[in-house]
Amino acid sequence: MTGPGGFRSRFAVGELLLWTSAAVLVASAHAGAVAFLMRSTPEPLGEPAPPAAIMIEMADIPVAANTEEEQIVNDQTDAEEVKSDSIIPEPIVEPPPAPDPEPTPEPVEEVVEELPPPEPEPLPEPVEEPPPEVVEEVDPIEQQVLAQLENVAVPVPVVRPPEPRKVEEQPKKRPEKKVERKKPTPQPPASQAARQAKLDTMKSDRTAAKQTSSGGNNSISPAKWMDRVRAHILRRAKTVPVKQSTIVNLYFTFDGSGNVLSVSAKSASDDAALEAAAIAIVRRSSPLPPPVDNVANHLSVAVKFDAR
Q: Which residues belong to any copy of the TonB C-terminal domain (predicted)?
């Protein structure tokens, strides 16, 4: 096994032989090509032909004998074994990839907007010059007359005092004569007793009439009694003149004898005068027909007033 020095010398000699033989082959190929071109027949004159392509044949690299390759491989393996522990292979740095070419921007066509022609400015209106003031010529005679009138004193009108009003004398009131009422002369005891007996007889007749009427009304139904009350009020309502037909609702209360205690009215047309007339009709209708049993002491009646 040879040392590293002998390996390097052998490798240098073999490499030198390879490059020398390659250079000789290339030079001989160029020389042959030039000689071939010079010997070729000239072409007839005419249009110049395009230049001929130059063919260069490269000779193969000579390969040394197998014995030398085996020795070189053995020497390389020995050298690699010796240097494997000390030589660290350098990392292969790959070149960065070429950046993609930027797309060329499309040309932008500038759109030029056609502006409308400017509107003509309105001409200023001509300023009318005011007409010159005409100075009226004053007649000298008129000036003298006016000067004389200015010096004349104008009489101030005298305001007459108002005439005194005549005060009418009010007639004196005559003194009222006092009428002396005659005192009733005392009646004898016999006449007073007769008068009292007459009053008692009248009271008893009224009581009997009420009892008779109440006994007769108890025999009728409440519906018939309502019809009597409505007819009793309508007889007086026909005497009221109205311009337009309308209905008035009457609300009133009464006692056991049919006397009206309170009354109110509401018309559809909100006629206050008509409502007051309806209330007066109910009050004039008092007393009502004597109430029957099982009838409340309040009542609502709708009265229609026809136009007259």
A: 220-308
User: What does the angle CA 33 – CA 37 – CA 43 come to, to the nearest 5 degrees?
Assistant: 155
How do residues 235-289 score in pLDDT, each as one tens digit?
Answer: 877 777 777 777 888 888 888 888 888 888 888 888 888 888 888 888 888 888 8
pLDDT of the residue at 272: 86
Share the mean pLDDT of the chain. Answer: 68
DSSP state letter for 257: T
104: buried, middle or exposed (CB in 10 Å: 19+, 13-18, 0-12)? Answer: exposed
Domains of the chain: 222-305 (3.30.1150.10)
Cα 16 from Cα 19, distance rounded (Å): 5
Find the DSSP H helices in the chain. 4-39, 66-83, 140-151, 189-217, 222-237, 272-284
Asked whether 10 and 72 are in contact (CB, 8 A), the reply is yes
Using an 8 Å Cβ cutoff, are 218 and 256 in contact? no
pLDDT at 186 over 60: no
Whether 306 contacts 293, CB under 8 Å = no
Q: Are 253 and 288 in contact (CB under 8 A)?
A: no
> Which tokens in the block code for residue 77?
């393996």
| Residues 254 and 261: beta-carbon distance below 8 Å | yes
Q: Which residue has the higher pLDDT, 47 or 225?
A: 225
